[in-house]
Amino acid sequence: MYQLYYYPGNANLAPHILLEEIGADYKLVLVDRNQNEHKSPAYLKLNPTGRIPVLVDGDLVLYETAAICLHLADRHAAAGLAPAIGSRERAEFYKWIVYLTNTLQAELIVYFYPERLADDAAAAAQVKAHAERRTGDMLDLIEATLAAGSGPFLLGAAYRAVDPYLLMLCRWTRGMHHPARARPHLARFLETVMARPATQRAFAAEGIAAPFY
Predict the structure, then answer these.
(1) CATH number, domain at 119?
(2) Which of 1, 31, 40, 147 has the fewest Cβ atoms within 10 angstroms?
(3) Averaged pLDDT for residues 93-102
């Protein structure tokens, strides 16, 4: 049985949705950020970065959301959550999951924690504003990709592990002046992924209430 260490709506959401898509046997383990449990000695033994999530798969303890998603896709290849190894679509799959984690998610972290890059409140406000603008540019790129593709998903007709990852990150923009849902193709994408029963089960299990994105 897998164990997924989580906090509602955090970076665990994408692998949580994948576990539901796969139909895997798993247990959720709450890491209460309000009590700083992600900085506790017990949790730091699992993930020395103190970040959420962690996936425990037997004697494997894995952190980093993209790594967890790739592991689940490979461990459950029959679920079709990743294209065939060596294929052109697999290369595109790698490109997008790296873009989502290294570029979009990294910028969203700057947006949510601008004080890490500033010495005072005024500077932090500037950092946050710049991060929101850069995030908007990244969402515009994804919007254009969806517009040019065969849809309804990021890689085309097939649902892949990148799609719940994109949903998760788009959800984090819901408080911005121009959130992901304000773009028509992204809005349709979000509606499509949110309509999947596995997505709805994961949201319900984490107690995530509307607005979902």
Answers:
(1) 1.20.1050.10
(2) 1
(3) 98
